Structures
1.
Amino acid sequence: MHYLPHAKQADGGHAARDTKVDRILVGEDYTYWGGLGPIVPQHIMSLFPNPRGQKCPADGALLQELHQLIDITNPKGLVGDPADWDNPRYFKS
């Protein structure tokens, strides 16, 4: 999620939550789709269990289909802005 220094955030907001540890992720080969990501077909969604942190065995064929959909071997860097960039739920004036 994005952060605007002048915006008020409820309960400390995501910036407080996301920066409470002393680690960072650095990478060169990635794709950040933001709000411009490809539409994932419903039958592939079983690869994304809910809630967070839950583990499930991955179906190799579905995983291969997902890799082709997102072109995993060709990282694109920053593709689009966050999907909720203007969502008032996160930022109140």
Note: The chain has two helices and two strands.
2.
Amino acid sequence: MLFIKIVIPLILIAVLLSRKVRLEISLSVGAAVLGFLFNIGVSDLFLHYIFLVKDFTFWNLFFIILSVMLLGELLEKGNMLGHMASLFLALLKDNRIAAAASSAFIGFLPMPGGSILSAPFVNKLIINDDNEHKLLVNYWYRHIWEYFFPLYSGMAWIITVFHADIGKIFSFMGPLALVMALSGFMLLFHAKRDYSLKIDRKDLRFSRIFSASWPILSAVLITLVLKVPLLFSILISIAAFLIFNRSLVKHVIPFVIQKNSIAVFFMTASMVYFSTIVKAAGIAPQLNEAMSSMPLWIPLYFIPFITALLTGISVGFVSISFPILANMIIINGNIDYYYLMIAFLGGFTGVMLSPAHLCLIVTTDYFKTSLARIYPILMKTAVIFLISTISYVVIVGLILK
């Protein structure tokens, strides 16, 4: 019965999205149905939504997404994205690999909805392919670092709360970045190589590399080195970029007041609302109790997986499910990094398949497609990924024995 209650809202969201109901409405309706099934009253469901105006997470997420989109807009207007695309093409020679590399590069800036920033790179470099495959190339390679990069909020939670060792995390989960990259080759090579794109060796000059990449690199370094919150790092990078490119200032106000900003507001609200209802419903503890008699790997993998499907964000499944799994992962005061890997892998696989994943959502409009057309292709890639990760987990387990 528990699993039926969880699946019903997910199916409802998928049906609404396939009928072209707006995401913010679909997610909010799904959250309300989920809350109702877990005995949250109508008045409480309403209050949870209204109280988002007092929620720091909501406002922080909203302004991060908006600032990321603004940075992308300014980079596009300043032709910086064109320069960056040319740089990756000159370095790697194959436009498809260059597209994946550009998306992975943006992945070093761990921001909610960051795929919207890398989407123009992929769109410029992969021309002779359908929008669904272009979206998924961007989406897939954008996330390959999340297994170990400490700036990602889910990994930061593990390092901070569990006091996990970054080196050991990398030794266990670092290779999964390569596993994920290889699993996406079906997406990458669906398109034929485009020989019409000119490769200019002048793009490899340091001055061009720096001029094309510094706005993005500065946001990463300010966060990583100076420990400045991500939102302020992005705003500082935008301000510096505008100082050196004053002609682009005129694009800021039109971008902020356009109706898309309102859509982002309600989209962010629906996403945070869904996560709030998942926590209020107490789903993770109930899952833990339901799976307590099963082999250890089942709750380790599937509690984060199911939580991730519902929340669509790594810090969501980590902060909800990992406290529940702590006694399985931390044994006699020591972290079992093999079990930690299984739990994170289950959650991250759920994040990549979640209809609530912001990166997936915000790029459907950009590539002018829909989740209904994307999911059949995504599921094929996920099967390859699942087989690859199971093989990796088994090999690591054999080595440890």
Note: Residues 109 and 217 are 8 Å apart (CA to CA).
3.
Amino acid sequence: MGFYQTYQGAYNAAQVRDDINSSTFALLQTLPLPQLTSVATMFSAMLFIVTSVVSATYVLAMFSAKGDQNPPVKLKLIWGAILSALALVMIITDSISAVRAIIALSANPFVYIVLLLLVCLFKALKSEKTTTGSRRHL
């Protein structure tokens, strides 16, 4: 839609270059019922963020509870507070670079975990191969 609006001259594509945050709403201004579509867009974005944070909180609490499918509420609250603090840092600093730095720092240990998971996967595949190979001879 943005390409067509730009081609017709109803949308200024230079605005995306200048301020990418307002480009969605500038595009919505060129469509019918801009107030309604803007509110619907903000509501959809809010639902997406809330759903993502709740899911992330649940998964992190589940990991912290050693894979328990029903993690304690206390763990979910702790992880929710941590994620809220990250969001607060992003809002206060008016920049996502601080949050990216925190995420990059906390993601470093997971590189080693993924390598260990790969080793475990190859071991499991190897044992699966020998198990299924011995069944054929029966």
Note: Helices lie at 2-8, 14-18, 23-29, 34-64, 73-93, 97-136.
4.
Amino acid sequence: MQLNNSEKEKFKKLLYQWQEDGLLSSDKVNDLKLNIDQLHQKSSPFDWKNLSFLAFFFAVVCIILATSLMITGDWLEKIVNAIFDVPDILKSLFFFIVAGGLSYLAKKRRERHPKKVFSNESLFMFGAISVAFGITYLGFSLDMTNGYYPVLILTASVIYGAAGIYLNSAINWYLSMAAFTLWFGSETTYWAKDNDLFIGMNYPMRYVLFGLLLLLLSKIMNRLEWEQKFVNSAYVLGLLSLFMALWLLSIFGNYADLIAWREVSQFNFILWALVLALASAIAIYYGLKHEDKISRDIGILFLLLNIYTRYFEYLWDSMHKVLFFSILAVSFWLIGRKAESVWNLADK
């Protein structure tokens, strides 16, 4: 067993507390402190786990950036066309085979080296990128990139989701959720045609429904006893989509035209601000009652965001800037002071 600095201090605090409660003698406490110091000395002074995560994270980011630049610059298409002078459908099939091979290797590697989480997931990411290429060339072969393109995004979401569940891959599942979010926006935009509103709803209004849909989906997944990481990702994305959409509605209302929006007073959107405040209060209450940290923290975050947004909207033009920022500074200090008290209480 190895201990870092934080764990060392926590163990020593426990020993002092047990000594005060009469559960341990002073001699026993001293012996245990020596053992803790030895465990701490054996531990590595450098956090190699975080370095590993950061290294693989930036490797994946660089691959994604390189891939994006190749696609936007038509380099990829030129390279593939130069190597494979075959129809687009065969190029698509090739990339799907490569994706399957990479996923198979990643799965086998994870079975042999289960503790190498980051390197295993990065292999799954390379397979996912190959899937994206396969879907792109499938779209070229069916001439869908300039037509009904949202179905390609939905196809990606389904493939990533199936791969995530079958391979138990978090990366594939998160990509599925991201693609599903993107599909919803592109699908509603496609059906809206030249109109910026879809069935009378702008983007934030649509994503309120999307957030509620994801929350319902997470509840169903939970009842079906899916793996918790899959349920949690849908739950978190649903909450964030819902609250971000409500926050944007409190600023823009259900307007899609910025020119028309500028001519309307922000006080006209006070109802949406109240809806956001009510939703935040419900999330906080639910989080406290059911010990749901995600719901509680998101509720607190958007309650504060709502308050400060209204502060800027209603008082920026009418209040002297010295007084404006002075009140802002005092409010942040009070929040920090309260947060510090709660933190210290939890630490005890």
Note: The CA atoms of residues 266 and 313 lie 7 Å apart.
